[in-house]
Amino acid sequence: MTTWHQIRRFGLALAVVLAASVWGTEAARADMTICNYSRGPVDVAIGYYDHEFNDWVSAGWYDIRAGQCDTLFVLHEFGPEEYVYVYAESQLGDGEWSGEYNMCIDYDAFEIYGWENCKARGYYSYGFVELDVRNASSFTYDLIE
């Protein structure tokens, strides 16, 4: 049985789709893939800007086996200056992929909003590699020894 609420909701959804097609406001989208070409498994943490909460987020750990590629997430609504950040370390203890952009991490699984005052909030500050994802429909970051 169709209710007035269902008809109204369908009409609203149709209006949004039509507006997007007319004005070309479809949100950008990119799949983020990490490939591990090192000799052993790695733990990966990522950082990105969450437009819904207007804050930076760091999240981990993603376990990627040697020789594997994993798509970690899909990004929407790229702005003019969009970046994603990656930190990875070998589970064998013989390497890391780090950079100069500090974000908060924890040693257990985590999702942390904000990159400031990590230590005061009980987290650790680690350097992440910056990836420029402007205008990307998908992108891959290779972990190579």
**Overall outline:** globular
How do the helices and strands follow one another from N- to C-terminus? Answer: HEEEEEEEEEE
Strand content: over 45%
**Mean of all residue-level pLDDT scores:** 80
CATH class: Mainly Beta
Structural class: mainly beta
Architecture in CATH? Answer: Sandwich
**What name does CATH use for the topology?**
Immunoglobulin-like
The tally of domains stands at 1
- Kindly report how far apart the N and C termini lie: 60 Å
Helical amount: 10-25%
- Discrete helix count: 1
- What is the radius of gyration computed over CA atoms, rounded to a whole number of angstroms? 19 Å
Low-confidence stretches: 1-27
Major sheet: 7 strands, antiparallel
Number of strands: 10
Question: What would you say about this model in short?
Answer:
By secondary structure, this protein is mainly beta. The chain has 1 helix and 10 strands, in the order αββββββββββ.
How does the SSE layout of this entry go?
Blueprint: H1 4-23, E1 29-36, E2 42-50, E3 55-64, E4 69-76, E5 83-90, E6 96-97, E7 101-105, E8 110-113, E9 124-132, E10 138-143
Parallel strand pairs: 1-10
Antiparallel strand pairs: 1-4, 2-3, 2-5, 3-8, 5-6, 5-9, 7-9
Structure explained in plain terms:
The protein has 145 residues and is mainly beta. The protein has one domain (29-143): Immunoglobulin-like (Sandwich). The chain is 14% helix and 48% strand. Strands 2, 3, 5, 6, 7, 8 and 9 form a seven-stranded antiparallel beta sheet that branches. Strands 4-1-10 form a three-stranded mixed beta sheet, with no helix packed on it. Mean pLDDT is 80; it is low at 1-27.
